[in-house]
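@channel sequence for tomorrow's demo:
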Amino acid sequence: MKVNFLKAKKVQELLTKIPENLELYRTGNFGFLMNESSYHLESRLEIDEQKLAAISCDKTNLKEVENCVLIYQALDNISHYLARDERLWVYLTHTHLLEYTRARWPIPEDNIQAIKHIKTHFFCIGARGIERDNAASRLWWLASLCNRTKGLSFEDALTCFLYQSDVRANIVERPTTSQNIHVFSAIIKKLDESYKSNKELFERERFRSFMKELNLIGGIKLLAALPETLVLQILDQCIAKTSA
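structure tokens (generated this afternoon):
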């Protein structure tokens, strides 16, 4: 199956019509977006429909790791440039991943809250909408980050990265940390070690102290220019200081 992108005009139309489409979001469907070819653009990229269809969750099991792997594999050939195009993700949350989006981010009963909620998780609003909020794109971007980790399996990296939301946010919101492969890989390896032992590094204040120590060192040394072995040694020093 080819990857489809909603036309920008249709994205804006859907956005403005959220109030009148509330029942479609709650219990209906947007099949017309798939059936009407004039609403979308077909790219040359292919998508694995079976893997996309396997993405699911429920209240007792969000299946974050599994779903990240599935969407990353389903969109195996997509570039980071195209992955920043809201037209792709808005199309998926309204069509193939509509049921998943509803299950993962249940729509509030209050209509005012529901409109805001739908804008956040069905669309890509604001600077962080694609990487953090959209139900589909956030899975792909989380997977894309963890797929760069060296020395750990894809699933192990995702498991420890997704274990604690505050820890994840502290990493993602620091570009110098998340955008450098050596630094990011080293941090994920330390989190993996903690995850498989006492999980102490995942404690909120402990991890924040750890990141502060790392930032202080980063102000003196250009961590991005160091090999990963040296970065790991620096991280061990930071961990030791926070446990003192």
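heads up for whoever presents: The longest strand covers residues 40-46.
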